[in-house]
Design goal:
The chain is of the alpha/beta class. The chain contains eight helices and ten strands. It has an eight-stranded mixed β-sheet, with helices on both faces. The protein has a two-stranded antiparallel ribbon with strand order 8-9. Helix 6 runs parallel beside helix 7. The mean pLDDT is 95. InterPro entries: AB_hydrolase_fold (IPR029058), Esterase-like (IPR000801), Mycobacterial_A85_antigen (IPR050583). This is Esterase family protein.
Length: 246
C-alpha cells in the first residue's frame, strides 16, 4: 500500500447552542508526522463527508505532502444533513444564520482547542462545492478579514448571493478565491429549480472583482458532480497553500 493511502482521520462531535440538533459531526485529517508542538495551516470543508468520501481529499492531501513536499496541513470536514443543506448553506435559508454562528463561534474554537491549527486569516482555507462554496463565501463576508482564502467548486451563486455581494460596501481586496465551474453545468436540477451554473459563476466573477477580490477563475469541461471536482482538489490545494498566500 502506498504511503499516501495510510491516512489519519479522527471523528469528533461538536456541541452547539445554535443548531437545533445541539451537535454536529466532524472528520479531521491529520497530516503525516502530525505533532502537537507544531502548528499547521487548516482547510475547513463544507459537505465534509462528501469531500472525504467522494473528493478523496485526505488521500490527495497525503500524496501532496509526501510526494510534492507541500507543507503539512490539517483538514476539517463539517458534515451536513442533506435534507437541511439548503436551509443552512443558502443565505436566505431559515437555518443559515445559526449555521454561520455555529461554524465561526463554536466549531472553529472547538478545533483550535483540540488540534494544533493556525488561526490567522491567511492560514485558513474555506472549501466547498455548489452551495457549500456559497456558504463559505457568506461566512467570509460576515466575518471580514477572518478568512482570506476560499476554494469554490461550481458555486451556487443564486440571485440572493449576487445581491449580497453587489451591496457589500467594503473592499474585498483581502479575499482570494479559487473559482471553477464545469462547462456542461448549464441545466443542473437542484431542489430550488434548474440552474445554469456557468452563467451564475460568470455573473458572480465581475461582482467580486469589482470589489477587489483576487480570483483564480477557470471554466473547463465537467459536470456538476464529484467526478469533476475530485480531479481539481490537488490543484486547488496547491493554489491555496502557495507561499505568497500562506
Amino acid at each position: 500500500m502506498s504511503d499516501y493511502l495510510k491516512r489519519t482521520i479522527v471523528k469528533e462531535t461538536v456541541s452547539s447552542r445554535y443548531l437545533p440538533e445541539r451537535e454536529r459531526e466532524l472528520r479531521i485529517f491529520l497530516p503525516p508526522g502530525y505533532n502537537e508542538i507544531v502548528s499547521y495551516p487548516v482547510v475547513y470543508c463544507q459537505d465534509g463527508e462528501d469531500f472525504f468520501n467522494f473528493g478523496r481529499i485526505a488521500t490527495q492531501a497525503n500524496k501532496l505532502i509526501l510526494e510534492e513536499d507541500m507543507e503539512p496541513f490539517v483538514i476539517v470536514g463539517v458534515d451536513v444533513d442533506k435534507q437541511k443543506r439548503t436551509a443552512e448553506y443558502a443565505p436566505d435559508g431559515d437555518r443559515h444564520d445559526d449555521y454561520v454562528k455555529f461554524f465561526v463561534e463554536e466549531m472553529l474554537p472547538f478545533v483550535s482547542s483540540r488540534y494544533s491549527v493556525r488561526n490567522e486569516a491567511d492560514q485558513i482555507v474555506l472549501a466547498g462545492d455548489s452551495l457549500g462554496a456559497t456558504v463559505g463565501l457568506h461566512i467570509a463576508l460576515q466575518y471580514p478579514r477572518r478568512f482570506a482564502t476560499l476554494i469554490s467548486f461550481s458555486g451556487a451563486y443564486y440571485p440572493a448571493s449576487q445581491a449580497i455581494v453587489e451591496a457589500y460596501s467594503d473592499s474585498l481586496a483581502w479575499l482570494h478565491m479559487f473559482m471553477s465551474v464545469g462547462l456542461q453545468e448549464t441545466a443542473y436540477e437542484t431542489d430550488s429549480g434548474v440552474f445554469d451554473f456557468v452563467a451564475l459563476n460568470r455573473s458572480m466573477k465581475p461582482l467580486l472583482e469589482k470589489k477587489g477580490a483576487k480570483l483564480h477563475y477557470s471554466e473547463r469541461d465537467g459536470l456538476h458532480q464529484w467526478g469533476f471536482w475530485q480531479k481539481q482538489v490537488p490543484e486547488a490545494l496547491q493554489w491555496a497553500m502557495q507561499p505568497a498566500r500562506i
